Every structure is written in structure tokens, then in C-alpha cells.
């Protein structure tokens, strides 16, 4: 039977021989020919022979399982998870995912295999979905501009703090934190503030505690963790008087009923959209959000979708203000966020599209009325309900609180939140049933009674023990809820037609299909993006993420409910540690950028623990990803850039000079291996040794691990800590720009400084290590809901399959380089003239000879049915090509043919056959409308434009828009749904 690795790896033994022949490698012995390529590419100083098995986890990673066997093992894990009804709250709630969205978005490869919309002409569907998300958030928060999502609520709060610090003119490092904030958010703020010398001052803002005289910002939780709904406008005004900005974390569902942060004067609103149809998933992934008032648009971290026009003047979407993305600022950055949670943002946006404003208001009213009715029942039974005003969460005082919480779990299958020895918090959501409310009420001694059988008036009238003042306060509540009338929402929201016309399943299904049809994803063809690794995300890997036993678990559920999750996590941690040569792994970081930060914070913690407070310099090669420098800044380090030589390698002489000039201050070196230039640096061991000799630690960026897996390990080449992109090397799909996971792996001496979490279910991790570093994500295990994907990938590939995948990827990249070298110079190669898993094609000579730019080539590739490779990174004017191991030789040859033909088209321009300003390249991409509307007046034919190769006739992808005017969109910033008339 064919094993999984054979299905995952696109090239076969036969086609690999063809490719090796093209590279001049002897294929007479098939068992050694591919190894010969790898021995020539990977430096001997770090190369691990297959017979040793040490680079692939021999004995740790079990032999490859079949797809059926892997699913059976996942079923066994799932069976050990107990799906109790969560009433824990704290930003995570039960929600009903519309089946039409689950089937047509979450489970649809047209959505989950798409890439970040850097090529907007072929991303119009997901861009429209994201602008729906931005409009939804901006409308509900009452602020002018929202971005395309954040990683989770707590990290969004941290980003809000950094935004306030940058935008405020106050000369102080004080940031005020609401005592009513979620505990996970307080923990994460503490982590982020400590590295940046920000002083956090906690105040009971709802209780009237005064603000400090000086501050640069204030953070308010609205409603509070206790459930309290209160008016923070006076606090916001006071913050403004002090010169600070107000950041409000708001529940979007509550905002359908209560005053928006914008109407209360907030500068920034943050939060999560999890309860908009996205399962809890033991912590994620979920789309956080951030919105800002007018004037702060250019301060927004992350991605921002805007409206521009194409070459015909028609509206078109694209990512706006790219130079505003903070990581592009490198060492001047105030954020390292370079991603989003696109797939989850799409789900949340479509929840709003499907339900519309009236539907959302109805869901919110149902939640609030259930909470209010429960509060009345508990009060009637003599239980003290702490707050009069609340939305979905009520806090109660009860003797023997721990015992009651235990009984609720053991006898009722309901999870309540123990606040302290005498206090319990209870949160309801749209999935909470009347029977469950009755069970909770009975637990507290209320008489059994079907909820809803008593009118609200009689419930109120039965509270004879309450004072007349309390009665008067309760009378001010919004009818059937515990919401104060003074905070009743007045402004409209979701008025755009998109939120009013797709309410039947038929309409919604067709809308989602129409958006998907506008996009190019892996289900259409190869996405050869260098540094991004768009490999197959197999259906079996994806199958379990929607199982209730994985999707329906609260991240703070008790350990006894998540034994299956914890065992799976333990296995995955041990597997990742083994294949990277490290001792401990934290799965908490929910993006590569957060993994970078966590690794650098571990290094910082290590130096501080040793008393080396002066070690603050981080050496970073000039070719590094922008997030490297940004992460170092956020870890409180000073960036010193190390030059690269003409071959793209770290300049050893410059490295030694920088070490000498910063001798006692070296904290770390960040290096990507294989390099950002796509080659194996032969001097890597010498580089890491030089840093260690200077007392520094080595951070190896794991972005290119898929070119090393099975042949060498970061820990063996001198690495002390690394982050790993599970969405690149370990098969989690990109989902249009997220979700991602960036676990951090470290040697034993750094393990104590890896991320911990105040609400984690266990103190120890794989290998028996205890982590004591600060939290970097809202949930203890980050986006745990998609960890089954990477677990499945490793389990089904096995150690041998992982090694084979690396070799196949390297072979494909070298084959492309060899085939295209006569047409486009390959910019960087190793000493053996080989590349790693990607190659950089230099288009600067093409521009000089023909006038055709890298943009022209990228857009023309759309006409050939391809997503363009990575443009102008790490070198401007180049294309970085990565075919991945998943592509077969036919698709790779199709790409090579397209590139050769485009080179011929550029030569035709240079020879004068086509004018420089009217040829298929500068006018690309071509829409169907552009070919049939009006008289054809171009110097080239319609056939040249649409069908440059005959194979396209059978299955042409037609871009929905022509080339988009990027500058127009920045000059005329529109980041919400345009009026329907714009498309007339």
C-alpha cells in the first residue's frame, strides 16, 4: 500500500532521476543519487548520515503511520478529552458555527490553502472577506478604522499598549491596567512591559480608584472579567487630560446592545471575534481585532485592507499602507506583527454577514436575558449576585465555592470559574440551554423551575430582601437583561448591504463560492513562494480539527478534561525537540513573530538570571527577516547589523569586528539557517562558536527548517533557541495569511525561561522541564486547536518521510535553478553551486536590458495561471522561488516553461516587436472583460494576452481585476466596505 509520504511528496523516484540527471548527478544507483545532492549542498560539518538517524528522531518519532492509523490515534486522544459545557468565560465562549461557513470556509481548501494577499489581483475574494471583517469591527466598536485581525485578544491589548506609547506625547512610562482585566491579559502585559521598561499600574477603575498623575495610556476591560458593565467614559476623559490614550478591550457581541468604545471616547478598541462562530479549540486559533480613531491609522500594527482602483478605474481591494507595517521598520519597529488570523477573521466576518445586525442583536439579547434570568433565580434563592449590571457573566458570593465548582463539574458536566474561596463567576453564551441554567440554579439551592415560565416582573418582585435602592437600580435595566439603560447603544452598525442580503443558506453558499472563485490558492496550482513554504495541507491532517473533542474545549478547562490534548501536546513537543536538537519546546506562541519574541525573552531571562544585565546587544545579519530586528527591539535589545558578503553569507570579518566592538554587551545572534538567501552557509559552526566565545546566545530562526529537517539539527550547529513555523515546515495551512503557530524550542539552560501561563493545566512539559518565563499568548498552548495538523504530519511522515521531504524540496529548487540559470541569473549559491530549498532569480539585468520589471513578470505569471514567487525579498528586483516537496515534475516544468516564455516576451519588447508601453507584460494581468470589451487596439493579440500556452485553454484562471494602482489606494485611504454604487 502506498504510504502517506509518497502521497505528500509530489515527485516520484522516476521523476527524481530525471531531475537529478538535469543536475549532472549520477543516477545509476538510485539509493545514493539523492543523497549525493544533499551531501553536496549541506556542509559536512553539520551533515547527519541517514544511518545514524539522530537528525530525524530515531526512537523518539515512531515509524510512519497510515492515514487510517493516525486518525485512529487521534480518536483515542479525543476520547480522553471531556467536552463539558463551559461557563468559564474570560473571553472564550461556546458558539454555533454556521454549517454553511464550516463546510465552505474552514473545510474548503480554496480558503485554507490560500496565501497572504500580497498579489491582490488574484486575492480579491479573501480581500473582500477581510474588508467585511474590518467593516464589522469598525462599526461595532464605533471607531473609524480596523485592521485585518490580530493574533488573539491579549496580544492585541499589548499591541494597543505599544500603540499608545508611540502615539502619546506624555513623557512617562506609566500604563494603567484595569483591575477588571482578564488574568491572561494581565500576565501577557507584564511580559511585554518588563522588556520595554514600561511601568504597569493596576487600578480598580470601575470602583472609582483615581488614575496616576502621569500616564501614556490606560486599559479598560468592557465588560469586566467579573461581568460588570460600567461606563468608563469618565476614566477615558481623565486619561486624555493626562495626555494618554485609552485602550478598551470590548466584547463584540455585547457591543450590539451597549455603547460602543468610540462613543465613549476610546482611542483604540481591541478584543477577540471568537464568539462569532469560531470554536474555542482549547485556545485558538481565533481572530483578535484592533480598531482606532481617526488619525491613528498609520500607527496600526499588522495588515490593513483598503480599496483602490485597477487599470480600468474599477474598484479593487489590496493591502494598504504597507510601509506602515511595523516590522518593515526593522530596529525602529514598535511591533513585530507581520501576519493576521485571516481564515478565522473570514469565519467571524461571515458569521456577521449570515446573521446580519438584527440576527446578532437577537443572539446578544438571548445571551443577556439568559444571564439576567439566572441572576434573578440565584438572588431569589439567597445567593448574593455581586453586580447589578452585566451582559453574559455574573459573579456570585457563595460559601464553599470550590466544592460547588467541583460538584458542577462532576455531577452536571458544567465548568464554572472559581474566582476565590467565596466567589464564583458564571458565563452564558448562545449555546447555553435553559436546562443547563436550571441545573446551575439548582446547584445554588434554587427551586427547580423551567426558565421562562415566570414573567420578569414577578422575578423582580420576589426579591423582598433587596433594599429599595437596589430595586430602583434594577428597574433601570434594559428590559429582560441586566444591562443599564444609560449604556444602551444608540448608533447603528452593519448598515452595508453585504450584511443584509446573504441570510439564506443558498445565498450564503453562493456568496462564499463567488469569493473563492476570484482567488488563486493551492487547489488551483503551485504557489512557488520563497521563504513561505506553501506545501500540501493533506485532508487527513485537517480532518480532526472540527471534532468536538478538539474544537469544543475551553483553554482553561481543568486538566482532567483535557488528558488527550495534553498527551498529544507532550508527544508533539518531544518530536519537535528531537528533530531540532533541542531539549524543551513551548507550543504557546501563536505566530512565528511571537516565537521569535519568546526565544529572545528566554535569552534575556537567562542573562538576567546570571546577573549579566549589561548583555543587551543582538547581532542580526542585514539579510534577515524584518521581524528579527523588530522582535529584538521588543525584547529590550539593541540591534547591531552584521554585513553579508557578495555570496549572501554572513561576513565573518564584519561579525568578528562587531563582536569585538560590543564584547561585553553581546546578548545574542539571530541567524536564519539555511540563510535568508536560500543557501547553506558552510561557516555556520564558526559563526555560532564566535558568539558563544563572546558570552552570547545563538538564536537560529526556524523559517527554513524544511531545508534541514532530517539532515542536520539547529541544536547541533550551535543553536541555543529557535522558533519553528508549523505553518511552513509542519503542514499547517496559511489560510490566506493565518493561522500560524511559532513554537519555541531551546536547550536545557534556557528552558526555565520559556513561556509559562497563569492558567496552564500543568507545570511541567515534555522532558520534565518547568517553564517560568512570561506568557506570550492568551492561551497556555496557543492555537492548540490546529496542533492535530502538525501531529498528524509528523506521525504519518515518520522520521524517514521527513528526511525524504527535505531532499525532495531541495532537489526541486535546484532543478528550477539549473533549468532557468541560462535565462535568469541565480543570485546566490553555496560553495558547490547548489541552493537549498529555494533560489533567487535576479531580474535586475532583465529590467536593464528590456525595461520589464519584477512587477511586470509577477503580474504576467497570473496570465500563465501561476501565483508569483516572492518579490524583491531579500533582494530588491528579484524573485525568490520555492517549489516545495509537494509539487510534481509536471507542475514544476509548467512553471519553468512560463518563466522561459516570459523571458522571451521581454526580449520581444527589447527588440522592438512590441512597444515598451504596450505589451503583454506591462498590461498584465488580463481579465476576460479586458479582452472582449470594445475594439482591440493593442500591439499584441488577444491570444498572446490570454493563452500564451495552449494548455491554458482547458482550464484558464481569470483574474477578476486588472493591475491595481497601489499608490491611489494609499492617497485615498478607504478601509471599509465601499458603497454598492462603486461597483456599478
From TrEMBL:
Glycine dehydrogenase C-terminal domain location: 805-926
Domain Glycine cleavage system P-protein N-terminal stretches: 6-444, 484-755
Keyword Oxidoreductase: yes
Catalytic activity: N(6)-[(R)-lipoyl]-L-lysyl-[glycine-cleavage complex H protein] + glycine + H(+) = N(6)-[(R)-S(8)-aminomethyldihydrolipoyl]-L-lysyl-[glycine-cleavage complex H protein] + CO2
Modified residue annotations for N6-(pyridoxal phosphate)lysine: 728
Key word Nucleotidyltransferase present: no
Keyword set, alphabetical order: Oxidoreductase, Pyridoxal phosphate
CDD domains noted in UniProt: GDC-P
Cofactor list: pyridoxal 5'-phosphate
Stretches of the chain forming a coiled coil according to its record: none
GO molecular function, one term: glycine dehydrogenase (decarboxylating) activity
EC number(s) on file: 1.4.4.2
Pfam families associated with the record: GcvP2_C, GDC-P
Similarity-based family: Belongs to the GcvP family.
Alphabetical list of PANTHER family matching this protein: GLYCINE DEHYDROGENASE (DECARBOXYLATING), MITOCHONDRIAL, GLYCINE DEHYDROGENASE, DECARBOXYLATING
Matches recorded under NCBIfam families: gcvP, PRK04366.1
Purpose of the protein: The glycine cleavage system catalyzes the degradation of glycine. The P protein binds the alpha-amino group of glycine through its pyridoxal phosphate cofactor; CO(2) is released and the remaining methylamine moiety is then transferred to the lipoamide cofactor of the H protein.
Assembly behavior: The glycine cleavage system is composed of four proteins: P, T, L and H.
Protein name (database record): Glycine dehydrogenase (decarboxylating)
Lineage: Bacteria, Bacillati, Actinomycetota, Actinomycetes, Micrococcales
Amino acid at each position: 500500500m502506498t504510504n502517506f509520504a509518497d502521497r505528500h511528496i509530489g515527485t516520484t523516484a522516476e521523476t527524481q532521476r530525471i531531475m537529478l540527471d538535469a543536475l549532472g548527478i549520477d543516477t545509476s544507483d538510485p539509493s545514493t543519487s539523492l543523497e549525493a545532492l544533499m551531501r553536496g549542498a549541506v556542509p559536512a560539518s553539520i551533515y547527519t548520515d541517514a544511518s545514524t538517524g539522530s537528525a530525524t528522531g530515531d526512537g523518539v518519532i515512531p515509524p510512519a503511520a497510515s492515514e487510517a492509523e493516525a486518525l485512529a490515534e487521534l480518536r483515542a486522544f479525543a476520547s480522553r478529552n471531556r467536552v463539558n459545557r463551559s461557563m468559564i468565560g474570560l473571553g472564550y465562549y461556546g458558539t454555533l458555527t454556521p454549517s454553511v461557513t464550516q463546510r465552505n470556509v474552514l473545510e474548503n481548501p480554496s480558503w485554507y490553502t490560500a496565501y497572504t494577499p500580497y498579489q491582490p489581483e488574484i486575492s480579491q475574494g479573501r480581500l473582500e472577506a477581510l474588508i467585511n471583517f474590518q467593516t464589522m469591527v469598525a462599526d461595532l466598536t464605533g471607531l473609524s478604522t480596523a485592521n485585518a485581525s490580530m493574533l488573539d485578544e491579549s496580544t492585541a491589548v499589548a499591541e494597543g499598549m505599544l500603540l499608545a506609547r508611540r502615539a502619546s506625547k506624555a513623557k512617562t512610562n506609566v500604563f494603567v491596567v484595569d483591575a477588571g482585566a482578564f488574568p491572561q491579559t494581565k500576565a501577557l502585559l507584564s511580559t511585554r512591559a518588563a522588556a520595554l521598561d514600561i511601568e504597569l499600574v493596576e487600578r480598580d477603575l470601575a470602583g472609582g480608584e483615581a488614575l496616576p498623575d502621569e500616564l501614556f495610556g490606560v486599559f479598560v476591560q468592557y465588560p469586566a472579567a467579573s461581568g460588570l458593565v460600567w461606563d468608563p467614559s469618565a476614566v477615558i476623559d481623565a486619561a486624555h487630560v493626562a495626555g494618554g490614550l485609552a485602550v478598551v478591550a470590548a466584547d463584540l457581541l455585547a457591543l450590539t446592545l451597549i455603547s460602543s468604545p468610540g462613543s465613549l471616547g476610546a482611542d483604540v478598541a481591541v478584543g477577540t471575534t471568537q464568539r462569532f462562530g469560531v470554536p474555542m479549540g482549547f485556545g485558538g486559533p481565533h481572530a483578535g481585532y484592533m480598531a482606532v480613531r481617526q488619525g491613528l491609522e498609520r500607527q496600526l500594527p499588522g495588515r490593513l485592507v483598503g480599496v483602490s482602483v485597477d487599470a480600468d478605474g474599477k474598484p479593487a481591494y489590496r493591502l494598504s499602507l504597507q510601509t506602515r507595517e511595523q516590522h518593515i521598520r526593522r530596529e525602529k519597529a514598535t511591533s513585530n506583527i507581520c501576519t493576521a488570523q485571516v481564515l478565522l477573521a473570514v469565519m467571524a466576518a461571515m458569521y456577521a454577514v449570515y446573521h446580519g445586525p438584527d440576527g446578532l442583536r437577537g443572539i446578544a439579547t438571548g445571551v443577556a436575558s439568559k444571564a439576567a434570568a439566572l441572576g434573578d433565580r440565584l438572588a431569589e434563592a439567597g445567593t448574593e449576585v455581586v453586580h447589578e449590571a452585566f451582559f453574559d457573566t455574573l459573579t456570585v458570593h457563595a460559601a464553599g465555592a470550590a466544592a460547588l465548582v467541583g460538584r458542577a463539574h462532576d455531577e452536571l458536566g458544567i465548568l464554572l470559574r472559581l474566582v476565590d474561596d467565596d466567589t464564583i463567576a458564571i458565563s452564558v453564551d448562545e449555546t447555553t440551554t435553559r436546562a443547563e441554567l436550571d441545573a446551575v440554579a439548582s446547584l445554588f439551592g434554587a427551586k427547580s423551575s423551567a426558565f421562562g415560565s415566570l414573567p420578569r416582573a414577578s422575578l423582580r418582585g420576589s426579591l423582598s430582601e433587596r433594599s429599595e435602592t437596589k430595586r430602583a437600580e434594577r428597574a433601570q435595566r434594559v428590559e429582560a437583561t441586566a444591562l443599564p439603560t444609560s449604556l444602551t447603544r444608540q448608533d447603528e452598525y452593519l448598515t452595508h448591504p453585504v450584511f443584509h442580503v446573504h441570510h439564506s443558506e443558498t445565498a450564503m453558499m453562493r456568496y462564499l463560492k463567488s469569493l473563492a472563485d476570484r482567488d488563486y490558492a493551492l487547489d488551483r496550482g503551485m504557489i512557488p513562494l520563497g521563504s513561505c513554504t506553501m506545501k500540501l495541507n493533506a485532508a487527513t491532517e485537517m480532518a480532526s480539527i472540527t471534532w468536538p473533542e478538539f474544537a469544543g474545549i475551553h483553554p482553561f478547562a481543568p486538566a482532567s478534561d483535557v488528558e488527550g490534548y495534553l498527551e498529544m501536546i507532550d508527544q508533539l513537543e518531544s518530536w519537535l525537540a528531537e528533530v531540532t536538537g533541542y531539549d524543551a519546546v513551548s507550543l504557546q506562541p501563536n505566530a512565528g513573530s511571537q516565537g521569535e519574541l519568546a526565544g529572545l525573552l528566554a535569552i534575556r531571562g537567562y542573562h538576567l538570571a546570571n546577573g549579566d544585565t549589561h548583555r543587551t546587544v543582538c547581532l542580526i545579519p542585514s539579510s534577515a527577516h524584518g521581524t528579527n530586528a523588530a522582535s529584538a527591539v521588543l525584547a529590550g535589545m539593541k540591534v547591531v547589523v552584521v554585513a553579508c558578503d557578495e555570496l549572501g553569507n554572513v561576513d565573518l570579518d564584519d561579525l568578528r569586528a562587531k563582536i569585538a566592538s560590543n564584547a561585553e554587551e553581546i546578548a545574542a545572534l539571530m541567524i536564519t539557517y539555511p540563510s535568508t538567501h536560500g543557501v547553506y552557509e558552510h561557516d555556520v559552526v564558526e559563526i555560532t562558536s564566535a558568539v558563544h566565545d563572546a558570552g552570547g546566545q545563538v538564536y537560529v530562526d526556524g523559517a527554513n527548517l524544511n531545508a534541514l529537517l532530517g539532515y542536520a539539527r539547529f541544536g547541533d550547529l550551535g543553536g541555543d533557541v529557535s522558533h519553528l513555523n508549523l505553518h511552513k515546515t509542519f503542514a499547517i495551512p496559511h489560510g490566506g495569511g493565518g493561522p500560524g503557530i511559532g513554537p519555541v524550542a531551546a536547550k536545557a539552560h534556557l528552558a526555565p525561561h520559556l513561556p509559562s501561563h497563569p492558567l496552564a493545566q500543568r507545570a511541567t512539559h515534555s522532558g520534565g522541564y518547568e517553564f517560568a518565563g512570561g506568557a506570550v499568548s492568551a492561551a497556555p498552548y496557543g492555537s492548540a486547536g490546529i496542533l492535530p495538523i502538525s501531529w498528524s504530519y509528523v506521525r504519518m511522515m515518520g522520521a524517514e518521510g521527513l528526511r525524504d521531504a527535505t531532499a525532495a524540496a531541495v532537489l526541486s529548487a535546484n532543478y528550477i535553478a539549473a533549468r532557468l540559470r541560462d535565462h535568469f541569473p541565480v543570485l546566490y549559491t553555496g560553495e558547490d553551486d547548489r541552493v537549498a530549498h529555494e533560489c533567487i532569480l535576479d531580474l535586475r539585468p532583465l529590467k536593464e536590458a528590456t525595461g520589464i520589471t519584477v512587477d511586470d513578470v509577477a503580474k504576467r505569471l497570473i496570465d500563465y495561471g501561476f501565483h508569483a514567487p516572492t518579490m524583491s525579498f531579500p533582494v530588491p528586483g528579484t524573485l525568490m522561488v520555492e517549489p516545495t516537496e509537494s509539487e510534481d515534475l509536471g507542475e514544476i516544468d509548467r512553471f519553468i516553461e512560463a518563466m522561459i516564455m516570459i523571458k522571451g516576451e521581454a526580449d520581444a519588447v527589447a527588440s522592438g516587436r512590441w512597444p515598451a508601453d504596450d505589451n503583454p507584460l506591462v498590461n498584465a494581468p488580463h481579465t476576460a472583460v479586458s479582452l472582449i470589451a470594445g475594439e482591440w487596439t493593442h500591439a499584441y493579440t488577444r491570444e498572446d494576452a490570454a493563452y500564451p500556452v495552449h494548455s491554458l485553454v482547458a482550464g484558464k484562471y481569470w483574474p477578476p481585476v486588472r493591475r491595481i494602482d497601489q499608490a491611489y489606494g494609499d492617497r485615498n485611504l478607504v478601509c471599509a466596505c465601499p458603497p454598492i454604487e462603486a461597483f456599478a
